[in-house]
């Protein structure tokens, strides 16, 4: 049935209705099955998940972690990466964070082991923290085609099955490696750190490795009172990343377990960035600086060390998408920093692409990802845009900068947010996933929502972030989010200027003042997050929504976008001028799947034969994913196939 598939003009499946049921709904003719939920053993010898919140911390070195997020299907041919192989694969997946109350007997804040009457003293058990540390990171799972040829199943005990956690040793690679800013008691030379953390969206490299991302690493760190021991610049830089003095971290409190000896003290004090020693080599004041990177993993080499690619900057990385590669041209990666009012970046490699590097593993990564130029985006009011280089000595990034002195490229990269401020970048409505259209080369980014837009003075409405929902004359921020896109000048992804428009605005269909894309019941949504162009040019949009879940739980939509020049200037109901793409119709954007209650739909990948689509259900709210007879909801992967075994969206491609 599968010929030379070209992008269709219309989507022919019947759109899925809004749903708030605690179940999955997928388009008619398709099958959605849960696989690999939290706690699934990857090897024999690890007992099955039970609802007792007592699985040992150590066992999670061989179990699926929590909060499944970005993932990628790596076709496997023998022992090697094969971008076209669909028979077997390594499914590589992020575990973004933990729901402590679903993993530990008493959740947060407990001091006493095995105690029916826990004492809440803002100090946690070592065993609970170890379990949570091991529930983060990445899983590598070998999959094989099922006997009935419909979808895949895990290969237990595969030599490839592997967990990388927040305690696995990782290498700092690129310009920041060895910098004074990443020296810690663990490695006073500044080349290694422990753990990858808060891994959110995913990326693939053109040579076939996995790119994971470190997003909300702020939440697991604490900071006491130490400003008097730090330089003004050091203090400012931490505050710019949210770590102000007396910052307790979020609810995790990984730095708090009681230490019975020095080794245990070191295991947990690394999550406390307070400067307590005489120098950085004696404490973990710079442990915080060793997180926030794009991290490269070779899933085919189970002994390989994850490489934190510092040349791509340090911020709350959402995902990482490469532009189509061309022999003899630089490799270009696009990235978003997901926080309110943060920025969109791109990295242009110094090395020129060679097709001979496919399958080159981390050595190819060393070639393309350790040296290059990081840029940040400026979106002008007239629909034009420019990329500002974050290079020491350019754009005010020098020792005389009035906000933060930059003494070298390591400081520019570790404090990329401050460098982007100095370069005059445009503050966006929470940049989440990036994906590049294989049809047009246009780059798409979800701007999920931003409650500060039009509310805080530093984030006024603008052409590129044009909505702040108004109620009773009061600005309430951008609730529903939008998807921005741009075309690089001359179609060259290394260009330093571009033209942009807004492809799509999220909105409830009955809220006319907000519904600038004329969405209807078949396709309205809020808070776009996951984003993926499949190789046939179909754009898949996932939602992580706080504004519309009373009408429908989070969802997956399929779309067939046009191109940037579709955009024309228009004016919002609040009088803001912007540039909007062609409006959505019933035929070119449709709801394909709705997840269970309380969940986020995130992470997406497809087998190369287009017959299996994988998505993740993260933090389901009720009992979805619970073991039979149990009640603890679990994040899990969902495998979607067509009931007739044909390719996903076969009805639109006329192969059915
Ligand atoms: Fe982890 Fe911005 O989503
Ligand atoms: Ca996300
Ligand atoms: Ca989100
Ligand atoms: Ca999430």
Automatic annotation (TrEMBL):
Region (Disordered): 455-474
Biased composition (Polar residues): 461-473
Superkingdom field: Bacteria
Name of the featured protein: Putative phosphatase
């Amino acid at each position: 049935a599968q010929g030379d598939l070209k992008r269709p003009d219309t989507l022919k499946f019947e759109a899925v209705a809004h749903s708030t049921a605690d179940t999955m709904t997928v388009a008619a003719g398709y099958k959605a099955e849960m696989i690999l939920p939290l706690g699934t053993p990857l090897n024999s010898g690890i007992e099955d998940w039970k609802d007792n919140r007592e699985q040992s911390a150590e066992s999670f070195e061989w179990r699926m972690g929590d909060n499944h997020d970005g993932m990628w299907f790596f076709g496997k041919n023998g022992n090697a990466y094969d971008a076209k192989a669909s028979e077997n694969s390594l499914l590589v997946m992020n575990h973004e964070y933990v729901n402590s109350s679903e993993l530990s007997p008493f959740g947060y804040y407990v001091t006493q082991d095995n105690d029916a009457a826990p004492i809440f003293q803002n100090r946690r058990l070592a065993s609970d923290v170890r379990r949570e540390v091991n529930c983060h990171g990445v899983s590598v799972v070998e999959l094989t085609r099922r006997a009935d040829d419909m979808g895949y199943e895990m290969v237990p005990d595969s030599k490839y099955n592997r967990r990388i956690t927040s305690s696995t040793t990782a290498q700092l690679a690129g310009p920041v490696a060895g910098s004074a800013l990443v020296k810690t008691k663990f490695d006073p030379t500044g080349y290694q750190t422990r753990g990858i953390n808060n891994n959110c969206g995913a990326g693939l490299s053109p040579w076939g490795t996995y790119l994971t991302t470190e997003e909300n690493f702020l939440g697991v760190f604490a900071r006491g009172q130490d400003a008097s021991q730090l330089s003004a610049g050091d203090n400012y830089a931490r505050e710019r990343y949210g770590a102000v003095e007396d910052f307790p971290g979020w609810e995790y409190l990984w730095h708090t377990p009681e230490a019975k000896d020095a080794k245990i003290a070191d295991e947990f004090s690394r999550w406390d960035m307070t400067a307590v020693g005489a120098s950085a080599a004696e404490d973990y004041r710079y442990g915080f600086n060793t997180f926030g990177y794009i991290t490269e993993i070779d899933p085919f080499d189970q002994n390989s060390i994850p490489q934190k690619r510092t040349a791509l900057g340090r911020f709350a990385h959402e995902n990482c998408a490469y532009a189509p590669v061309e022999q003899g041209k630089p490799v270009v990666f696009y990235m978003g920093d997901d926080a309110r009012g943060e920025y969109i970046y791109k990295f242009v490699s110094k090395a020129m692409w060679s097709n001979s590097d496919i399958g080159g593993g981390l050595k190819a990564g060393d070639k393309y990802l350790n040296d290059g130029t990081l840029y940040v985006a400026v979106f002008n009011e007239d629909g034009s845009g420019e990329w500002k280089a974050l290079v020491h000595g350019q754009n005010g990034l020098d020792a005389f900068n009035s906000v933060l002195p930059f003494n070298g490229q390591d400081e520019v990269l570790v404090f990329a947010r401050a460098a982007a401020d100095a370069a005059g970048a445009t503050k966006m409505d929470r940049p989440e996933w990036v994906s590049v259209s294989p049809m047009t080369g246009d780059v798409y980014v979800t701007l999920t929502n931003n409650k500060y837009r039009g509310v805080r003075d530093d984030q006024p409405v603008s052409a590129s972030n044009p909505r702040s929902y108004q109620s009773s004359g009061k600005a309430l921020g951008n609730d529903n989010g939008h998807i921005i896109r741009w075309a690089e000048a001359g179609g060259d992804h290394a260009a330093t200027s571009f033209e942009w428009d807004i492809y799509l605005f999220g909105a409830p269909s009955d809220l006319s003042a907000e519904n600038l894309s004329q969405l209807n019941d078949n396709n309205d949504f809020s808070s776009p997050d996951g984003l993926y162009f499949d190789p046939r040019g179909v754009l898949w949009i996932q939602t992580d929504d706080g504004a519309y879940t009373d009408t429908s739980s989070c969802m997956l939509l399929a779309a067939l976008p046009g191109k940037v020049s579709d955009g024309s200037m228009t004016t919002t109901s609040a009088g803001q001028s912007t540039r909007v793409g062609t409006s959505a119709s019933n035929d070119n954007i449709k709801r394909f799947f709705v997840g269970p209650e309380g969940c986020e739909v995130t992470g997406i990948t497809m087998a190369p034969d287009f017959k299996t689509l994988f998505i993740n259900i993260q933090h389901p709210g009720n009992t979805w994913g619970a073991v039979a007879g149990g009640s603890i909801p679990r994040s899990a992967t969902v495998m979607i196939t067509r009931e007739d075994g044909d390719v996903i969206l076969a009805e639109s491609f006329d192969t059915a």
